[in-house]
Amino acid sequence: MASAHRFRIGADHPCLPGHFPGRPLVPGVVLLDELAALLRREHGWQLTRIIDAKFVAPVWPETEAEIRVQGAAPRLRFEIHGEAGVLARGRVEVRA
């Protein structure tokens, strides 16, 4: 199974003013929420466990990114790519 989803976190997202004031950075939890939404929408799966997640490069507001998911349920691998390359990667577990 492989799937992909392009997304962008707008500069008006409510998490950004506090993360970090004066130089907003998209929190990792927001990226993982995008992953969970993709898995739910495309496959009807619920994200049940984050085995590991590494945030390789900062994701700034308005950055165009793409989540790529590979593997077979219940364990999947994901990468989040931006213009400059890999932004985050990890492994998760899901259930139907």
TrEMBL record:
<dbReference type="InterPro" id="IPR054545">
    <property type="entry name" value="ApeI-like"/>
</dbReference>
<feature type="domain" description="ApeI dehydratase-like">
    <location>
        <begin position="6"/>
        <end position="90"/>
    </location>
</feature>
<protein>
    <submittedName>
        <fullName>Hydroxymyristoyl-ACP dehydratase</fullName>
    </submittedName>
</protein>
<dbReference type="Pfam" id="PF22818">
    <property type="entry name" value="ApeI-like"/>
</dbReference>
<dbReference type="InterPro" id="IPR029069">
    <property type="entry name" value="HotDog_dom_sf"/>
</dbReference>
